[in-house]
TrEMBL record:
This is Flagellar brake protein. It comes from Simiduia curdlanivorans. InterPro entries: PilZ_domain, Split_barrel_FMN-bd, T3SS_YcgR_PilZN. Keywords: Bacterial flagellum, c-di-GMP, Cell projection, Cilium, Flagellum, Nucleotide-binding. It comes from the Bacteria. Gene3D superfamilies: Electron Transport, Fmn-binding Protein, Chain A, predicted glycosyltransferase like domains.
Amino acid sequence: MKFEDYKLPFGYPLSLEGASAGGVPFKFASKVIGCIPGDVLILSHPRAAKASTLRPGQKILVTIMAGNGVLAFASVIDQIIAQPRPLVFLTYPTKLSFKEIRGATRVEIRVPIEAVCLSGLVATKTTGVITDISTSGARIELTESIGDIGGSMEVSGAITIARMEEKFNFPAVIRSRVERSTRESEAEFPAIYGIEFVEVPHSQRLLLYAFVYSLLATK
């Protein structure tokens, strides 16, 4: 995939790793400000970095938590400006590596859901299905796009445990977005997201664990 395919929103956090002119290693927090695909990537200047630490021509390793893994690429600082705000311009990444990190085993399912995006001024609703789930997150396919990476949402529906139907409502954060091909975009559920469950109430957390482990027991 190309960097722009990850659709990281402006303000998305990342890390810059490298070494100073004296050979002292560093790792600074920064954020995505913008980009011109194929040309330049624009980042905020790390607050913790001294003016002389970062310099044009310096090689940098960029790491980003994206979806269920870590996205990394090497780049070079092209330019640094101080006004109207401190910004770092990097050469646009051409080679990307992605290491998947999953904290829990996922199981394939197909459960109808309603998804509500809570990040905008007005809550946006749509329908879809959960296609795989773990105790920490899920993959969902929706009838339309409703949010960006880093946005908050809730997914709700009904699941069956020991022949009993239970209602669920799981708060989540969008961690990744998968773009279908042109042909696949005509599918019933063209918008695909990877979500992480966050701040799930205790009773709903117990329901989630019971559901996932009951599925694993049948595999």
